[in-house]
Amino acid sequence: MSNYNFGLSATVAEPGSFYDLGSTQDRLVEVLVDCPGVQGLYTYRIPPDMQVEPGDILNVPFGSQQVGAIAIREINQLPADLNLSQIRDVEEVVCSGFFPTNYWTLLERVAEYYYTQLIQVVKVALPPGLLARSQRRIRLKPDNIENPSPSPSPLAGRGAREIENPNPQKGSRASGVEAFLSHAASSILQLLQAGKTGDYTWKYLQQQLSKKHRITPTPARRGLQELIRRGLVESYLEEQRPPQPQLKQAVSLTGYRHSPDLTSRQRELLKFLGQHDGDLWVDDFVEIYNTTRETIQRLEEKGCVVIEEREILRLESSPVVESDRSKSLTESQTQALATITNLSNFAQVLLHGVTGSGKTEVYLQAIAPLLEQGKSALVLVPEIGLTPQLTDRFRARFGNKVCVYHSALSDGERYDTWRQMLTGEPQVLIGTRSAVFAPLPKLGLIILDEEHDSSFKQDQPVPTYHARNVATWRAELENCPLVLGSATPSLDTWVTINQGSRENNFSNPSPLSPPPSPSHYLSLPERIQSRPLPPVEVVDMRQELREGNRSIFSRSLKEALQQLQEREQQGILFIHRRGHSTFVSCRTCGYVIECPNCDVSLAYHHTQERAPELLRCHYCNFVSAHPSNCPECSSPYLKFFGSGTQRVVQELEKEFPQLRPLRFDSDTTRTKGAHRTLLTRFVNREFDLLVGTQMLTKGLDIPQVTLVGIVAADGLLHFPDYRASERAFQTLIQVAGRSGRGDDPGRVILQTYTPEHPVIQAARTHDYQSFTEAELQQRATLNYPPYGRLILFKLSSLEETAVQETAELLANELEKNEPNDSTSSYEILGPAPANIMRVANRYRWQILLKLPLDSTVTLPDFNYLRELCPSSVSLTIDVDPLNMM
Ligand SMILES: Nc1ncnc2c1ncn2[C@@H]1O[C@H](COP(=O)(O)OP(=O)(O)OP(=O)(O)O)[C@@H](O)[C@H]1O
Ligand SMILES: [Zn+2]
Ligand SMILES: [Zn+2]
């Protein structure tokens, strides 16, 4: 801004004073300020010679501070509750073009659809502290101080300050510059000149000014403006530190590995290292093989390995992976790929491929040419920790063009990844749901893998967005294709795509009809190498009991477990719950031990012989010691009901002492990298059986797994939720799909007390189509999604009566507003207490609105409803809810 027109500077409004420029001339901008606890948009004036675009990062005065802000939109009318004298000027555009075009349109669309304030959307979209981290710095411009150039140099101009000074020409010598300056400005200059580099953060300068010169923020800011106008100093945003070469220790095998005095453990470690091409990061080696640095050093002393420092990429966060090349595709993969690569505009594609059909290979080959064209791709996955394999496959193909973005990254890592994206380098970003907001410029393709997975939906906090919706809007705005991949597509997607592709086929290409809805259905109906899907054997556990088998394992499953080791194969046992037992009750009086904070029973946790016996709440994490007597009647006879992962592992140890089970659930995978470590050990055959929950269902590709046992399918079936069947079916098919992915054929043993249930029957035959048709019919009858829309009002409060009264009040309001015309009306279900009425001491009520799909229902003003809630009651509006509390 060194060419600031001095003549105009006199008209810049000083805080507290007011120069009327005539309102027609004023350009106003609404900004989001980055200040903790501050919400909403603030209006500022754009100085006449400043250009501000939506998305620019600004500096604005805020109270007595100077804060970072984002320009949201220009407005041409002053908000009604403000008058011009209150409006302050944008101080400076710190950084322009920070966000890709369309980015703000996307965020606004999310805010609108999910009935949230824009600031809430911005909070999920941007990495934490994005603005706060952009430090503003001030540095001297020594050239201008020593040789101020002639007109139109700022020094030669005529401005307010110079008029005060009778002899402006003296300013042409450096030593005389200070003579023209205000006290604040010359103090700043002094501070800068006193330093070695003449370069400080503005924050530091402000502190010094206030401490040493008693200059308050307002004059300080004016002083700085003065210096900038005169071209004596410049202000800049501290650059992201260039990637520092970081060094890390790697361990590699030497040729000399048969030293005679090696222990068997040392030999084993060398063998493991050999399996990784003789080369690993020391950290990874220690973690994966449960060894220590000292052990590795001893191997080095014996000359079997060398340890050396190697440079790593700053963003790299996983072990080195072998690079690989494109596989030659099967016929259906080829067809699918051809369709996807031929799309250059917005289109929605469903890639419906059975488990193990090679969807990932299609993604990889669809992305490769984009990178060559300088474009980027966004790959959304349910949970990154659970799928280290997927990330590895991408890294193996695209090396360091792959970045990972998810909430488990540290703030710093997230910030770096974000800034790094803005460079516009073509890259592949793999991330979980919030990565749908990643600001990749030149986006060529969005992929949502396992699109049926409910972790793409955020239940809380607001915005309660579904990444699939946002991805669709994003693809539309970027005009690029969106690929939804799954072996068990959600019914929502199934219906959308079917409708879309029908219109596609039958639309009449007259120029007057709307363009065909760009939907494509692509199918991979077979596994790679025509391997069969594993047969599913359904075992009726009632029958087992009748025939005298009281074990949690059926005879079939026992036999299969016995065969595992003989055949050198591995298996997976799926259990619906972690912990040991789902509840504990007294045999004498029937008392069930419950959480003091929630309306649920406590689960019994006990991992091994000497470990403490604990009761744990799976909702609020309350923990207590397991009592030895019934708290109600003191009876010592407490019984455990329901089996969790711990119990199954204990039973296994009793019945199959030779089998080596590995528990894989959220209790055992809490630490960073634990998923990878455990899976690696399993793949290395340190264990025979993986025993785990839901997290087993997501994308595991382990060829030597031939057996999948579902210990009790019933736990999945009975939920008071209209989606229970859909979810249960997806889970069963996905778990079953982990079996038989290699050369050996697989099998699935599904144990249940309700073998006749339609979900079990459909899973038995892997019959997606008929399950889906039957389920859709039921949804249509009841106007449930995808044939209707739902909006869930979730209320909660520490006060039981307050939340009930508020729920009733809101329901009344909704009823009052209900349109009379039956075609455009909505249905109100409730108010009702939530399924679990109290969680973490908060009482929960809900109201469900059911809306027809195709009408334009006028909804009541939700902001008004929000205002009706007393401060003790919190209200969340969940649009298209997936979990009914
Ligand atoms: N054309 C191919 N030729 C040989 N092997 C392939 C080919 N395509 C994929 N594979 C391999 O087949 C296995 C299964 O592929 P992938 O994991 O991509 O299946 P998927 O469809 O994503 O399965 P799921 O939905 O069960 O996760 C992988 O090990 C992959 O490397
Ligand atoms: Zn009792
Ligand atoms: Zn609880």
TrEMBL record:
Binding site for Zn(2+) 2: 595, 598, 617, 620
First-level EC class: isomerase
A GO molecular-function annotation: DNA binding
Co-factor(s): Zn(2+)
Catalytic reaction annotation: Couples ATP hydrolysis with the unwinding of duplex DNA by translocating in the 3'-5' direction; ATP + H2O = ADP + phosphate + H(+)
Entry coiled-coil feature ranges: none
Binding site for Zn(2+) 1: 586, 589, 630, 633
GO CC annotation terms, alphabetical: primosome complex
Single GO BP term: double-strand break repair
Domain of life, per lineage: Bacteria
Keywords: ATP-binding, DNA replication, DNA-binding, Helicase, Hydrolase, Isomerase, Metal-binding, Nucleotide-binding, Primosome, Zinc
Residue ranges of every copy of the Helicase C-terminal domain listed in the record: 622-779
Annotated EC: 5.6.2.4
Family matches, as CDD domains: DEXHc_priA, SF2_C_priA
Region feature Disordered, mapped onto this chain: 141-174, 500-521
Manner of cofactor binding, per the entry note: Binds 2 zinc ions per subunit.
Family statement drawn from the similarity comment of this UniProt entry: Belongs to the helicase family. PriA subfamily.
Subunit structure: Component of the replication restart primosome.
Protein name stated in the entry: Replication restart protein PriA
Species this chain originates from: Crinalium epipsammum PCC 9333
